Amino acid sequence: MTEETVKTKLDNALVSFFEKDRALLQSGVREDSVAHRLAMHIGTQFDGFDVDTEYDKMHIDGIPYRSPSTKHGEPSRYRD
Fold it and tell me: What are the backbone dihedrals phi and psi of residue 58, each rounded to the nearest 5 degrees, phi first?
């Protein structure tokens, strides 16, 4: 797949996202909700690829991220 093909597919995904899910950006939902919906649109453009917004479970040095709860009850995505 050429760089130009990838750019075109990403442009198509963004157009689709803005046409169908623009209200998400205006509603104040959390960033991960927007990322998930955008990933779904990207996934439709790349047959045979898995698009996952939670892929980064390990740091580049191989040390796993710790996931303690924050005061809001959501897992932290920061390392010690």
Answer: -125, 140
Q: What is the 3-state secondary structure (H, E, C) of 20-60?
A: HHHHHHHHCCCHHHHHHHHHHHHHHHCCCCCCCCCCCCECC
pLDDT tens digits, residue range 9-67?
999 999 999 999 999 888 988 888 899 999 999 999 999 988 877 765 555 566 655 55
List C-alpha distances in Å: 16 to 5, 26, 42, 45, 56: 17, 16, 9, 10, 25
CA separation (Å) from 27 to 21, 40, 66? 10, 19, 31
Question: What is the reported pLDDT for 45?
Answer: 96
Domain ranges of the chain: 3-45
